[in-house]
Amino acid sequence: MEPNLELPNFMRPISDSIECVDTYSMGLFSCLKVKLKLQRRISYHLTQTYLPTILIVSVSWVTFWLSVEAVPARVSLGITTLLTMTTLIGGAKQGLPAVSYIKALDVWMGTCTFFVFSTLLEYVVVSKTSRRKVALLVTMPSSGSAGHGVPRSSTMSPGPRFEHQYSPPGTAKSPSQNNFRPQKLNGHCDYDVESPVAEAYPRPGPTKVVLTPAQQAKRIDIIARVLFPSMFGAFNFVYWTYYLLQSWEEAG
Questions:
Q1: What is the pTM assigned to this prediction?
Q2: Which of 64, 192, 207, 226 is deepest in the core (most CB within 10 A)?
Q3: Tens digit of pLDDT for each residue in 227-236?
């Protein structure tokens, strides 16, 4: 074989000649078989297919930073990126042979199209959530400084000491007489844990927050800003690891 032989979009083919004997109707005849092993150049598809599709998928995530009320901007951006992906798929398949099995490029294009289409579905969910008329009750973890209460005897500042005074039923007194009785104690102010002052402090535990429909929609967008890039990054890791290892094994 010619040592300078080259094919477009392929590396130099690896040839292997085999002498054989085949049986025909006229008898046995010697033959010579040549096996050519072709390896496609990835640089062409890397610049013409992979990098453009990565940019299109990344551009589709801009909708997560737009306001929920910006309906024309979000819808037009999603439809434009989806149509651009369709055009790139058609252009990439023109130079590839028509085969019955699934190629690596088909897996890449199909997954990128799914991510772009998912941004449109995400906006449908966000738009539907923002138009709801029911608020959502969400349990939020309490901060560490909010739930400690006041100890039974803790020095606060110089001043009087207040003690809780119990009043039997039917002998209600004024709030000042029924709750506290000031006493001096070495110039310090001590609080009793059973007093209304100690009960005013929140106890440790989760707090419940009511989210309006607009806040719920904003929360979905915030989650999508992290979820979509993370999933696409994980897909890239699995995709390139699998196919690069497979190509190295075939070359070796």
A1: 0.62
A2: 64
A3: 999 999 999 9
